Fold this sequence. Notes:
Layout: H1 5-17, H2 20-27, H3 31-45, E1 50-52, E2 57-59, H4 61-90, E3 93-99, H5 101-118, E4 122-128, H6 131-139, E5 145-148, E6 157-172, E7 183-184, H7 185-188, E8 193-196, H8 201-209, E9 219-223, H9 226-234, E10 239-243, E11 255-261, E12 266-274, H10 281-291
Parallel strand pairs: 3-4, 3-5, 7-11, 8-9, 8-10
Antiparallel strand pairs: 1-2, 5-12, 6-10, 6-11, 6-12
Helix pairs in contact: 1-2, 1-3, 1-4, 2-3, 5-10
Amino acid sequence: xxxxxxxxxxxxxxxxxxxxxxxxxxxxxxxxxxxxxxxxxxxxxxxxxxxxxxxxxxxxxxxxxxxxxxxxxxxxxxxxxxxxxxxxxxxxxxxxxxxxxxxxxxxxxxxxxxxxxxxxxxxxxxxxxxxxxxxxxxxxxxxxxxxxxxxxxxxxxxxxxxxxxxxxxxxxxxxxxxxxxxxxxxxxxxxxxxxxxxxxxxxxxxxxxxxxxxxxxxxxxxxxxxxxxxxxxxxxxxxxxxxxxxxxxxxxxxxxxxxxxxxxxxxxxxxxxxxxxxxxxxxxxxxxxxxxxxxxxxxxxxxxxxxxx
Length: 309
């Protein structure tokens, strides 16, 4: 039906005061706005709720019956909302989330802030580890669910995709490649190149993408974690290829993200959970909050800096 709670409240106010003007003042509405609400309600119900004359406003027979039902509806709704608030305030326990470090900064801060405001007595533990450890934590039930870019092919894991992100070249703003709109993999071999170890899930993604290519830059420094790699680039040791989420947002004083081509490589971040095992209610609420992020407008995403040639 094409009416809302504000229309019901307007109807009850007019019925209580037998006056459009008094009800309008009580609800801080103009009389014309009040009339439109009552008219919308009557049109939706297909009946007249009031008999209007120049001297008085009275409920019709149908209007008197509907008044009782409208009061019951509003009281029930208010009681339900109070019950939900009580449930949130009383909810206690712990939720454990495993998450690859490069995705923590993008997905968790705003969501955890909102979650804590709604459920102040809930504890949230974050296992920030590499992709294999994050997957294992979920598989072993050490975490309720996880944020990862591997697990889609695991038979006992449900993978709910949220975000597809590209790998980019990380370099300093004073590097010779800093002025480029995009860089090919073949060009990386001319510079000091660093990478993550073969134990890293990101290295596996890159190696698979370059498996058909004869061009693969030779590294001089290998580390375990992507964020360590970004720190070394910032320190001026060389360049590296990293997921876009691992890079600072646009406007960093010394670091740049440059799109890669030939080939372009990407990974998909998703929520992982144990297949066939429902999440506890508190964990499900946090899961749903993170899942809703895939509906955010693109302006909220971390941006790759635009450069001129």
